[in-house]
Amino acid sequence: MKSSLVQSHGLLVLACLFAACATPNPRRASSDAASSGAIASNASIPPDATSNQTRSVASISTTSTVETTAGASKASTTPVDQQPVAASAAQPEVASEPLVAIVAGRPVYVSELLTQWVYARNFEVLKQLDNLALGRIVAAEAQRLGVMVPPSLVTAAAEESVSALEAEVKKKNPKLGFDTYVDRVLGLDPIRYRERLRDDALRQLLADRVARAWLLGCERREVRIVVAKEESVRDAVQKDLAAGRDFSEIAREHSMDPSGLEGGRIPAVVRGDAPIAKLAFSSAPNQVVGPIQESGRWLFLVVDAQPPVVAGSWEQIAPQVELDLRARAVEELEIAQWRSAMQARYEVDFQPFLRLVGQIPR
Protein backbone atom coordinates (compact mmCIF):
# COMPACT_ATOMS: atom_id res chain seq x y z
CA MET A 1 0.00 0.00 0.00
CA LYS A 2 1.22 3.45 -0.79
CA SER A 3 1.42 6.08 1.90
CA SER A 4 3.49 9.15 2.65
CA LEU A 5 6.74 8.86 4.58
CA VAL A 6 5.29 10.86 7.45
CA GLN A 7 2.20 8.65 7.69
CA SER A 8 4.23 5.45 7.54
CA HIS A 9 6.57 6.76 10.21
CA GLY A 10 3.70 7.42 12.59
CA LEU A 11 2.18 3.98 12.07
CA LEU A 12 5.48 2.20 12.54
CA VAL A 13 6.26 4.08 15.73
CA LEU A 14 2.87 3.09 17.14
CA ALA A 15 3.43 -0.53 16.16
CA CYS A 16 6.83 -0.49 17.85
CA LEU A 17 5.27 0.88 21.03
CA PHE A 18 2.88 -2.05 21.25
CA ALA A 19 5.32 -4.73 20.17
CA ALA A 20 9.06 -4.10 20.34
CA CYS A 21 8.93 -1.85 23.41
CA ALA A 22 6.65 -4.03 25.52
CA THR A 23 8.17 -4.41 29.01
CA PRO A 24 6.44 -6.17 31.94
CA ASN A 25 5.40 -3.91 34.81
CA PRO A 26 3.94 -5.82 37.78
CA ARG A 27 3.12 -2.60 39.64
CA ARG A 28 0.67 -1.47 36.90
CA ALA A 29 -1.55 -4.56 36.84
CA SER A 30 -5.23 -3.57 36.58
CA SER A 31 -8.41 -4.17 34.63
CA ASP A 32 -7.60 -1.13 32.50
CA ALA A 33 -4.26 -2.70 31.63
CA ALA A 34 -6.08 -5.81 30.53
CA SER A 35 -8.19 -3.70 28.22
CA SER A 36 -5.09 -2.07 26.73
CA GLY A 37 -3.51 -5.43 26.01
CA ALA A 38 -6.57 -6.47 24.01
CA ILE A 39 -6.64 -3.40 21.80
CA ALA A 40 -4.68 -4.96 18.94
CA SER A 41 -6.88 -8.03 18.67
CA ASN A 42 -10.28 -7.07 20.07
CA ALA A 43 -11.45 -5.24 16.95
CA SER A 44 -12.97 -7.63 14.45
CA ILE A 45 -10.96 -5.86 11.93
CA PRO A 46 -8.59 -1.33 4.15
CA PRO A 47 -5.70 2.09 0.63
CA ASP A 48 -5.29 3.87 1.59
CA ALA A 49 -4.30 5.20 1.69
CA THR A 50 -2.81 5.60 -1.66
CA SER A 51 -0.51 8.57 -2.09
CA ASN A 52 -3.33 10.68 -3.53
CA GLN A 53 -5.70 9.78 -0.68
CA THR A 54 -8.49 8.68 -3.00
CA ARG A 55 -9.49 5.51 -1.20
CA SER A 56 -10.31 4.96 2.41
CA VAL A 57 -9.08 1.37 2.32
CA ALA A 58 -5.76 2.57 1.97
CA SER A 59 -4.02 3.27 5.41
CA ILE A 60 -4.39 -0.31 6.55
CA SER A 61 -1.81 -0.64 9.25
CA THR A 62 -1.98 -4.08 10.89
CA THR A 63 1.26 -6.05 10.85
CA SER A 64 1.43 -9.24 8.84
CA THR A 65 3.77 -11.70 7.19
CA VAL A 66 1.08 -13.55 5.27
CA GLU A 67 1.30 -14.10 1.55
CA THR A 68 -1.69 -15.79 -0.04
CA THR A 69 -0.27 -17.75 -2.92
CA ALA A 70 -1.92 -18.98 -6.10
CA GLY A 71 -2.90 -22.61 -6.03
CA ALA A 72 -3.63 -22.75 -2.30
CA SER A 73 -6.99 -24.27 -1.47
CA LYS A 74 -7.76 -21.65 1.16
CA ALA A 75 -6.19 -18.70 2.97
CA SER A 76 -4.86 -20.94 5.74
CA THR A 77 -1.59 -19.02 5.98
CA THR A 78 -3.29 -16.01 7.55
CA PRO A 79 -1.52 -15.42 10.88
CA VAL A 80 -3.46 -15.64 14.11
CA ASP A 81 -3.33 -11.89 14.71
CA GLN A 82 -5.24 -11.29 11.46
CA GLN A 83 -7.99 -13.82 12.05
CA PRO A 84 -11.42 -12.45 13.05
CA VAL A 85 -12.23 -12.58 16.72
CA ALA A 86 -15.67 -13.85 17.71
CA ALA A 87 -17.74 -11.35 19.64
CA SER A 88 -18.19 -13.82 22.49
CA ALA A 89 -14.57 -14.95 22.66
CA ALA A 90 -12.97 -14.34 26.06
CA GLN A 91 -9.95 -12.06 25.91
CA PRO A 92 -6.85 -13.24 27.82
CA GLU A 93 -5.99 -11.15 30.85
CA VAL A 94 -2.89 -9.02 30.57
CA ALA A 95 -0.77 -8.74 33.71
CA SER A 96 0.97 -5.52 32.84
CA GLU A 97 0.94 -2.53 30.54
CA PRO A 98 3.83 -2.01 28.09
CA LEU A 99 6.46 0.56 28.91
CA VAL A 100 7.59 3.00 26.24
CA ALA A 101 10.37 4.69 28.20
CA ILE A 102 12.03 5.12 31.57
CA VAL A 103 12.80 8.72 32.46
CA ALA A 104 14.68 9.74 35.60
CA GLY A 105 14.11 6.26 36.94
CA ARG A 106 10.34 6.45 36.43
CA PRO A 107 8.33 4.50 33.81
CA VAL A 108 6.35 6.02 30.97
CA TYR A 109 3.47 3.79 29.93
CA VAL A 110 1.88 3.34 26.53
CA SER A 111 -1.45 4.65 27.84
CA GLU A 112 0.24 7.92 28.79
CA LEU A 113 1.68 8.34 25.32
CA LEU A 114 -1.61 7.50 23.61
CA THR A 115 -3.56 9.81 25.90
CA GLN A 116 -1.25 12.68 25.06
CA TRP A 117 -1.51 11.84 21.36
CA VAL A 118 -5.31 11.77 21.55
CA TYR A 119 -5.47 15.22 23.12
CA ALA A 120 -2.96 16.63 20.62
CA ARG A 121 -4.14 14.91 17.44
CA ASN A 122 -7.55 13.41 18.15
CA PHE A 123 -8.76 12.96 14.56
CA GLU A 124 -5.43 11.57 13.43
CA VAL A 125 -5.44 8.96 16.21
CA LEU A 126 -9.02 7.90 15.52
CA LYS A 127 -8.29 7.68 11.82
CA GLN A 128 -5.38 5.33 12.43
CA LEU A 129 -7.47 3.24 14.82
CA ASP A 130 -10.14 3.01 12.13
CA ASN A 131 -7.45 1.95 9.66
CA LEU A 132 -6.40 -0.84 12.00
CA ALA A 133 -10.00 -2.03 12.19
CA LEU A 134 -10.34 -1.85 8.43
CA GLY A 135 -7.22 -3.95 8.02
CA ARG A 136 -8.67 -6.63 10.26
CA ILE A 137 -11.91 -6.66 8.27
CA VAL A 138 -9.97 -7.05 5.03
CA ALA A 139 -8.01 -9.96 6.48
CA ALA A 140 -11.18 -11.60 7.81
CA GLU A 141 -12.97 -11.27 4.46
CA ALA A 142 -9.95 -12.52 2.52
CA GLN A 143 -9.81 -15.58 4.76
CA ARG A 144 -13.57 -16.17 4.54
CA LEU A 145 -13.54 -16.00 0.76
CA GLY A 146 -10.23 -17.81 0.33
CA VAL A 147 -8.73 -14.97 -1.72
CA MET A 148 -5.39 -15.82 -3.31
CA VAL A 149 -2.83 -13.26 -4.48
CA PRO A 150 0.25 -14.43 -6.43
CA PRO A 151 3.52 -13.40 -4.72
CA SER A 152 4.65 -11.77 -7.95
CA LEU A 153 1.84 -9.22 -7.66
CA VAL A 154 2.77 -8.47 -4.07
CA THR A 155 6.43 -7.97 -5.02
CA ALA A 156 5.54 -5.67 -7.90
CA ALA A 157 3.21 -3.58 -5.73
CA ALA A 158 5.79 -3.32 -2.94
CA GLU A 159 8.50 -2.24 -5.38
CA GLU A 160 6.15 0.40 -6.76
CA SER A 161 5.59 1.75 -3.25
CA VAL A 162 9.32 1.88 -2.58
CA SER A 163 9.93 3.67 -5.87
CA ALA A 164 7.28 6.28 -5.06
CA LEU A 165 8.78 6.91 -1.63
CA GLU A 166 12.29 7.05 -3.07
CA ALA A 167 11.09 9.76 -5.47
CA GLU A 168 9.73 11.76 -2.51
CA VAL A 169 13.06 11.44 -0.71
CA LYS A 170 14.97 12.57 -3.81
CA LYS A 171 12.84 15.71 -4.03
CA LYS A 172 13.89 16.66 -0.52
CA ASN A 173 17.54 15.67 -0.86
CA PRO A 174 18.86 14.33 -4.21
CA LYS A 175 21.95 12.93 -2.47
CA LEU A 176 20.03 11.00 0.17
CA GLY A 177 19.15 7.37 -0.54
CA PHE A 178 15.94 5.78 0.61
CA ASP A 179 17.48 3.44 3.18
CA THR A 180 19.65 6.25 4.52
CA TYR A 181 16.57 8.45 4.93
CA VAL A 182 14.71 5.73 6.82
CA ASP A 183 17.73 5.05 9.02
CA ARG A 184 18.98 8.57 9.76
CA VAL A 185 15.88 10.75 9.42
CA LEU A 186 13.11 8.43 10.59
CA GLY A 187 15.34 6.48 12.94
CA LEU A 188 13.93 3.15 11.79
CA ASP A 189 15.37 -0.12 10.49
CA PRO A 190 15.32 0.07 6.64
CA ILE A 191 14.90 -3.69 6.29
CA ARG A 192 11.87 -3.80 8.56
CA TYR A 193 10.53 -0.67 6.88
CA ARG A 194 10.63 -2.40 3.50
CA GLU A 195 8.98 -5.47 5.01
CA ARG A 196 6.21 -3.23 6.29
CA LEU A 197 5.71 -1.75 2.82
CA ARG A 198 5.38 -5.27 1.44
CA ASP A 199 2.79 -6.14 4.08
CA ASP A 200 0.89 -2.97 3.20
CA ALA A 201 1.02 -3.87 -0.50
CA LEU A 202 -0.44 -7.29 0.21
CA ARG A 203 -3.25 -5.86 2.31
CA GLN A 204 -4.13 -3.40 -0.44
CA LEU A 205 -4.26 -6.17 -3.02
CA LEU A 206 -6.50 -8.21 -0.74
CA ALA A 207 -8.70 -5.18 -0.07
CA ASP A 208 -9.21 -4.56 -3.77
CA ARG A 209 -10.24 -8.16 -4.34
CA VAL A 210 -12.63 -8.59 -1.43
CA ALA A 211 -14.32 -5.27 -2.23
CA ARG A 212 -14.69 -6.06 -5.93
CA ALA A 213 -15.84 -9.63 -5.21
CA TRP A 214 -18.53 -8.22 -2.92
CA LEU A 215 -19.67 -5.71 -5.53
CA LEU A 216 -19.88 -8.29 -8.32
CA GLY A 217 -21.90 -10.53 -6.00
CA CYS A 218 -24.53 -7.83 -5.39
CA GLU A 219 -27.54 -6.77 -7.40
CA ARG A 220 -26.34 -3.49 -8.86
CA ARG A 221 -26.83 -0.82 -11.50
CA GLU A 222 -24.23 0.88 -13.65
CA VAL A 223 -25.16 4.55 -13.82
CA ARG A 224 -24.05 7.99 -14.92
CA ILE A 225 -24.95 11.17 -13.10
CA VAL A 226 -24.97 14.93 -13.51
CA VAL A 227 -24.81 17.04 -10.35
CA ALA A 228 -25.90 20.68 -10.40
CA LYS A 229 -25.41 22.95 -7.41
CA GLU A 230 -26.95 26.07 -8.93
CA GLU A 231 -30.39 26.60 -10.43
CA SER A 232 -28.88 28.08 -13.60
CA VAL A 233 -26.85 24.89 -14.14
CA ARG A 234 -29.89 22.75 -13.43
CA ASP A 235 -31.88 24.66 -16.02
CA ALA A 236 -29.06 24.36 -18.58
CA VAL A 237 -28.94 20.60 -18.09
CA GLN A 238 -32.69 20.29 -18.55
CA LYS A 239 -32.51 22.37 -21.71
CA ASP A 240 -29.72 20.20 -23.17
CA LEU A 241 -31.54 16.99 -22.30
CA ALA A 242 -34.69 18.27 -23.98
CA ALA A 243 -32.61 19.05 -27.06
CA GLY A 244 -31.43 15.44 -27.20
CA ARG A 245 -27.77 15.99 -26.33
CA ASP A 246 -25.75 12.98 -25.18
CA PHE A 247 -25.83 12.51 -21.41
CA SER A 248 -22.06 12.04 -21.19
CA GLU A 249 -21.42 15.29 -23.04
CA ILE A 250 -23.79 17.12 -20.70
CA ALA A 251 -22.01 15.64 -17.70
CA ARG A 252 -18.59 16.75 -18.95
CA GLU A 253 -19.86 20.26 -19.58
CA HIS A 254 -22.12 20.89 -16.60
CA SER A 255 -21.64 18.39 -13.78
CA MET A 256 -20.09 19.72 -10.60
CA ASP A 257 -19.19 16.20 -9.47
CA PRO A 258 -15.71 14.78 -10.23
CA SER A 259 -17.41 12.05 -12.23
CA GLY A 260 -18.15 14.65 -14.90
CA LEU A 261 -14.63 14.14 -16.22
CA GLU A 262 -15.65 10.60 -17.18
CA GLY A 263 -18.99 11.54 -18.64
CA GLY A 264 -20.79 11.13 -15.32
CA ARG A 265 -19.80 7.50 -14.78
CA ILE A 266 -19.62 6.43 -11.14
CA PRO A 267 -18.99 2.98 -9.58
CA ALA A 268 -21.89 0.56 -9.76
CA VAL A 269 -24.61 1.28 -7.23
CA VAL A 270 -25.99 -1.54 -5.09
CA ARG A 271 -29.52 -1.74 -3.77
CA GLY A 272 -29.93 0.19 -0.52
CA ASP A 273 -31.49 3.11 1.31
CA ALA A 274 -29.21 5.82 -0.07
CA PRO A 275 -31.06 8.33 -2.29
CA ILE A 276 -28.95 7.53 -5.34
CA ALA A 277 -29.55 3.79 -4.86
CA LYS A 278 -33.30 4.25 -4.59
CA LEU A 279 -33.24 6.40 -7.71
CA ALA A 280 -31.15 3.89 -9.68
CA PHE A 281 -33.34 0.91 -8.81
CA SER A 282 -36.57 2.75 -9.55
CA SER A 283 -35.42 3.83 -13.03
CA ALA A 284 -35.68 1.97 -16.32
CA PRO A 285 -32.48 1.44 -18.35
CA ASN A 286 -31.55 4.40 -20.58
CA GLN A 287 -34.24 6.55 -18.98
CA VAL A 288 -32.97 9.90 -17.69
CA VAL A 289 -34.51 10.82 -14.34
CA GLY A 290 -34.25 14.10 -12.50
CA PRO A 291 -33.74 16.64 -11.39
CA ILE A 292 -34.02 15.24 -7.86
CA GLN A 293 -33.16 17.76 -5.17
CA GLU A 294 -31.02 16.36 -2.37
CA SER A 295 -28.70 18.09 0.12
CA GLY A 296 -28.79 21.41 -1.66
CA ARG A 297 -28.07 20.05 -5.11
CA TRP A 298 -29.91 18.62 -8.11
CA LEU A 299 -29.20 15.15 -9.38
CA PHE A 300 -29.81 13.74 -12.86
CA LEU A 301 -29.25 10.03 -13.42
CA VAL A 302 -29.39 7.47 -16.19
CA VAL A 303 -29.04 3.69 -15.78
CA ASP A 304 -26.68 2.25 -18.37
CA ALA A 305 -26.84 -1.44 -17.44
CA GLN A 306 -28.02 -4.07 -14.97
CA PRO A 307 -25.05 -6.48 -14.78
CA PRO A 308 -25.65 -10.08 -13.73
CA VAL A 309 -24.67 -11.19 -10.23
CA VAL A 310 -21.35 -13.06 -10.11
CA ALA A 311 -21.51 -15.79 -7.44
CA GLY A 312 -19.46 -18.81 -6.44
CA SER A 313 -16.26 -19.79 -4.67
CA TRP A 314 -13.11 -17.72 -5.08
CA GLU A 315 -11.78 -20.20 -7.63
CA GLN A 316 -14.95 -19.68 -9.66
CA ILE A 317 -15.17 -15.89 -9.46
CA ALA A 318 -11.47 -14.97 -9.36
CA PRO A 319 -11.08 -14.70 -13.17
CA GLN A 320 -13.97 -12.24 -13.38
CA VAL A 321 -12.72 -10.26 -10.37
CA GLU A 322 -9.21 -9.97 -11.83
CA LEU A 323 -10.57 -8.99 -15.24
CA ASP A 324 -12.79 -6.36 -13.66
CA LEU A 325 -9.91 -4.92 -11.62
CA ARG A 326 -7.74 -4.61 -14.73
CA ALA A 327 -10.54 -2.70 -16.43
CA ARG A 328 -11.11 -0.31 -13.52
CA ALA A 329 -9.52 0.20 -10.12
CA VAL A 330 -11.54 0.18 -6.91
CA GLU A 331 -12.97 3.62 -6.19
CA GLU A 332 -14.11 5.53 -3.13
CA LEU A 333 -17.85 5.00 -3.60
CA GLU A 334 -17.31 1.29 -4.07
CA ILE A 335 -15.28 1.11 -0.86
CA ALA A 336 -17.93 3.12 1.01
CA GLN A 337 -20.65 0.67 -0.03
CA TRP A 338 -18.46 -2.32 0.87
CA ARG A 339 -17.59 -0.88 4.27
CA SER A 340 -21.25 -0.33 5.05
CA ALA A 341 -21.96 -3.99 4.31
CA MET A 342 -18.98 -5.16 6.39
CA GLN A 343 -20.13 -3.15 9.41
CA ALA A 344 -23.21 -5.34 9.47
CA ARG A 345 -21.07 -8.50 9.21
CA TYR A 346 -18.26 -7.83 11.69
CA GLU A 347 -18.33 -6.34 15.15
CA VAL A 348 -15.87 -3.50 15.79
CA ASP A 349 -15.43 -2.44 19.41
CA PHE A 350 -13.20 0.57 20.22
CA GLN A 351 -14.12 0.71 23.90
CA PRO A 352 -10.82 -0.87 25.06
CA PHE A 353 -8.95 2.00 23.43
CA LEU A 354 -11.23 4.61 24.97
CA ARG A 355 -10.68 3.11 28.41
CA LEU A 356 -6.93 3.02 27.79
CA VAL A 357 -6.81 6.76 27.15
CA GLY A 358 -9.13 7.59 30.04
CA GLN A 359 -12.28 8.28 28.03
CA ILE A 360 -15.73 7.04 28.95
CA PRO A 361 -17.04 4.73 26.18
CA ARG A 362 -20.18 6.10 24.55
Question: Could you explain how this protein is built, in words?
Answer:
The chain is α+β, with helices and mostly antiparallel strands and 362 residues long. Helix content is 49%, strand content 10%. The protein has a four-stranded antiparallel sheet with strand order 4-3-6-5. The protein folds into two domains: 230 residues, no CATH class; 87 residues, Roll (Chitinase A, domain 3). The radius of gyration is 23 Å and the shape is globular.
Helices and strands in order, then pairings?
Elements lengths: L4 H14 L12 H7 L1 H4 L56 E5 L2 E4 H11 L1 H24 L5 H22 L5 H8 L4 H27 L3 E9 L2 H12 L4 H8 L14 E2 L4 H7 L6 E7 L2 E9 L8 H14 L4 H14 L5 H6 L6
Antiparallel strand pairs: 1-2, 3-4, 3-6, 5-6
Helix pairs in contact: 4-5, 5-8, 6-8, 8-12, 8-13
Q: Estimate the mean pLDDT confidence.
A: 77
Radius of gyration from CA coordinates: 23 Å
- Count of domain modules: 2
Class inferred from helices and paired strands? alpha+beta
- Please report the number of helical segments: 14
Order of helices and strands: HHHEEHHHHHEHHEHEEHHH
Distance between the termini: 32 Å
> Strand count, sense and closure of the main sheet?
4 strands, antiparallel
Annotation, overall tally of beta strands: 6
Helix content: 40-55%
Strand order of the largest sheet: 4-3-6-5
List the uncertain runs: 1-89
- Shape verdict: globular
Strand content: 5-15%
